[in-house]
Automatic annotation (TrEMBL):
A Gene Ontology cellular-component term: plasma membrane
InterPro entries (UniProt xref): L-PG_synthase/AglD
Keywords, sorted A to Z: Cell membrane, Membrane, Transmembrane, Transmembrane helix
Protein name per its UniProtKB record: Flippase-like domain-containing protein
Topological relation to the membrane, as annotated: Multi-pass membrane protein
Residues making up the signal peptide according to the UniProt record: none
Chief location category: membrane
Annotated localization: Cell membrane
Amino acid sequence: MLNKKNIISSILSLALGFFLVWLILKFTEVDLEQVVTSFYSLNPLYAGLAITALIVHTFLTAYKWGLVTQKLTPDSQQASQQSLKFYLFYTTLGSLTMQFMPQYVGMVMVQNLALRIHKISSFSKGFLSVIYDQFFNFLIPLLLFPASILYALGYISLSLAIWIWIATIIAVHFMINKWHRSLISFLIAALTWVKQLKSGKTKDAQPAMATDKNSILGKNFTLYLYWISVVRYLVWIIRGVLIAIAGGFKIKLWAVTFVTPIVQLAMLFSFTPANLGLMEFSWIGLLRLFDVSDAIAVQFSLMQRFLYIVAVVIVLAVFAVVSSVERFALFTSKQNQ
């Protein structure tokens, strides 16, 4: 839950993020008016496709979280009654919250609170479902990181980097297929240990896990979750490419593709809301390796942030309209009775 200390910490981290952005604009000599102008000159078609990709990414994130939650709470009537709309709403709300506190702190907090408030799961299982879901979010960029950094530094060719990406993704599929139960059991035990360490408890609070093939330890479910994560991350990369095209930025599309996993993993060490300032620094430094000017890198990184917020606002606005229509229809039906 939010307390005074957390609120003060969030305000300070937000202020630090804006200060870092100010430093970037100052030392790269990028005029803020120039950045705003780039927003107005967006190609509407590709900008719309980029926003669509962001919404699809949010949809897949919510869908995956819902799958994990229902598998961890098979006996919960509340969990079985919740539709994808429930998970999509709180995922989007978490995305909005991340703009005001460290990225994955905001998402984890909103998701865990949603499960507890709606009595879908206990604190222990709610924690595991959220963290287990977030693990898969980071797994794919982690797998793609080695080839990405080697290509960005010029140690391997583009064709070899692509081959390593494909080979890694396929190899992990077969690893999961053979050792899924041991891998997932170890992951759950590790997550439970982290929870106990954080809470100061020493008792074994690991929730009992079903062992049948349809449980979270099941091979088919684990592989399904893995490939959803792969597709989800592919959509995220496509989003970056579409933003580069929409803004007319002179950036090689392969540069955007291979820098994305590196920047994504940098978010693990984020201490500003939505990695504000730090994400921009990361893009500037990494795109320099591809001879992209600081001005272009700054505009591109800020454009990503802007369109991300636009996509979040659009989804929440749709929820608000649908909710209003449903309430009005319910009110009308009661009046007619």
